[in-house]
């Protein structure tokens, strides 16, 4: 239902700092300035949808993104719904079931590694560097991470 071209486009979400999620989208091709969108999400089919409480807006005041706090996606699947209206008429809704492992619609920006320690010895002219993996919302295996160390002489 709703007029063609009014549904959102280019929907993307990014998880950061383990439990925060930012979602963004572009307004539909035929969306007018009075079109308004509302985002709902849930992490399983058994849960109720949660509406965004913190929208970002474009110059016309239309919702074009959302910031969520305390997000947990334990089964690596999330369900999203964006609906809305314009001049009292319904617009086309957008529904998406997104797999975390696809990294296509949801990505995660990782925190830096934790507890970095450097021990250098003058006798052997060598250093030992150790750290713990970054905190993440869904990666549990340490072997999933690759690290790069850049050493600068100052």
Automatic annotation (TrEMBL):
The keyword Cytoplasm does not apply. Residues 11-96 form the Type I cytokine receptor cytokine-binding domain. One of its GO terms (cellular component) is external side of plasma membrane. One of its GO terms (molecular function) is cytokine receptor activity. It is a single-pass type I membrane protein. PANTHER family: CYTOKINE RECEPTOR (PTHR23037), INTERLEUKIN 5 RECEPTOR SUBUNIT ALPHA (PTHR23037:SF46). This is CSF2R factor. It comes from Pardalotus punctatus (spotted pardalote). The gene is Csf2ra_0.
